[in-house]
Amino acid sequence: MRIINRKPSRVTALALGLLPFVLTLVAYAIASHYRRLDNPADKLLPSITSMGEAFWRMAAVPDRRSGDLLLWLDTFDSLWRLGTGMAVSTLLAISLGIAIGFIPHIRSGLAPYLATFSLIPPITILPILFITFGLGELAKIALIVIGTAPVMIRSTAQAVLDIPREMIIKAETLGASVLQMVTRLVLPQVLPHLITSLRLSLVPAWIFLISAEAIASTSGLGYRIFLVRRYLAMDVILPYVVWITLLAFLLDRALLLLSLRAFRWHHLGGDAL
Amino acid sequence: MNTASKLSVQNLAKLYDGVPVLERVNLEVQTGSFCTIVGASGCGKSTFLRMLLSQEHPSRGQILLDGARLPLEPTPDRGIVFQKYSVFSHLTVAENLILAQEFESSRWTGRLFGTSRKAAFESSDDLLDRIGLRPAANKYPAQLSGGMQQRVAIAQALIKKPSILLLDEPFGALDPGIRVDMHELLLGLWKELSMTVFMVTHDIHEAFKLGTRLLVFDKIRHDPQAPQAYGATITYDLPLKSPTGASLRSPEAIAGAIGAPQTNKPTPSFQSIHTPNNQE
Known about the structure:
Shape of chain A: globular
Distance between the termini of chain B: 28 Å
Largest sheet of chain B: 6 strands, mixed
Largest interface: A-B, 27 and 38 residues
Order of helices and strands of chain B: EEEHEEEHHHHEHEHEEHH
Oligomer: heterodimer
CATH class of the largest domain in chain B: Alpha Beta
Helix content of chain B: 25-40%
Number of domains of chain B: 2
Mean pLDDT of chain B: 82
CATH architecture of the largest domain in chain A: Orthogonal Bundle
Helix content of chain A: over 70%
Number of helices of chain A: 10
CATH topology of the largest domain in chain B: Rossmann fold
Largest sheet of chain A: none
Structural class of chain B: alpha/beta
CATH class of the largest domain in chain A: Mainly Alpha
Mean pLDDT of chain A: 93
Strand content of chain B: 15-25%
Low-confidence stretches of chain A: none
Number of helices of chain B: 9
Order of helices and strands of chain A: HHHHHHHHHH
Strand order of the largest sheet of chain B: 6-7-8-3-9-10
Distance between the termini of chain A: 27 Å
Low-confidence stretches of chain B: 243-247, 260-280
CATH superfamily of the largest domain in chain B: P-loop containing nucleotide triphosphate hydrolases
Number of strands of chain A: 0
CATH superfamily of the largest domain in chain A: MetI-like
Radius of gyration of chain A: 23 Å
Strand content of chain A: under 5%
Number of domains of chain A: 2
Number of strands of chain B: 10
């Protein structure tokens, strides 16, 4: 049988999925082991147990200076910034995206401007944001919004344009006003695409969040890993990277689950990644 | 006979980027007619239908509905069923059928809640029975077969009681067996609601079976040096007398005549089919 026609069983699929993770861990453990044979105080590839200890210290032992549980403080602050930024971007995407996609005059007015604006590398705006908004939360959230909103608005507008013209005409023949078409046709048709766009935008959003925190912040996951970098504290940095990845993964899965639950009709067609 | 036509098409022409698709189309249609429209691909029959819907606008000439010019955009007095995307994929069958009612009763959100929503669902039960989809009321269109989807589309298009129903190859994607069922449903509804129907189809047998009047679109002027020079017009306008669908002429004879548009003289065969012979 050709390999393209052979499908793995559930157990095989699970094992195959876990294999690269296990291999990475094993490779790391071996490399770390041999480095520490040469130099027991090696900082570059700390042992998995020492990373576990460091992570436990960050998560469960109050900081000596502030008395905070640093991991949870960092996680809360970062997720709050990320969540606020993405919420603002999502609202902008819904309102402007639908307006641009549905109403030709607004499209003519805003689409070229938006296309230009979205090409500004967001990081280049960061100094401007720090100068205008100061070093507080607003500048970081603004960076996330500026970095993600234009793309989300454009993809939402495109999703509106992709609604089959037949459906819009049918709604007109059923006597719908523009507002009614927005609430009953455009919005429900576009929301699943908005969630996809939100999931994809979370990747750059994390980049902007970590960058902003690395440059000017006093808390946050990005702040922490760039702070302990000064002490070559790989035993903190590596677990933090894994933790950030895990958070990003959970957010992504939660959004997918939301889409599958709330927009079942959209997923009747086939598989969703 | 009332002399005023339901729909009057006067010297209609449609050009795309200066290229004529339709030209010199003239038509008077009485209330209650069932006009089937056939023609080769790209001859402008769908364009004609879209102009009747106000989805597109004539380049020249005009269309009068009840003596007044057509509105510039689609309105509830003209229902439409497309070949696909006719129903709303994010709504269940029952939700699709109450949507027009929701638009009418809820000015701002277009959505009914609670008891009024329940009442709307109950009022659509008869319609669901009529199209035989009561058991599938809570399914999404993607879960239905093509024929079931088109049943929903037809029922939905009729909710606003349009005086004109436009059908753009509505059964083009359906199996022959399902088509026959759909024909019965459509003819039944047409007789019941005394609508004027325009139906574009590729299936000449379907056109004969359903229509009271057959319109054939084709190019009559043909310049071999410039094939794009002239647009299509109505080349045959055949009254099919029996409204029940039993065709009075052999479909094959006419199909043969109009299936050869390249011959520059289709008139003789046209006359031959125009001689009445009542063979059932």
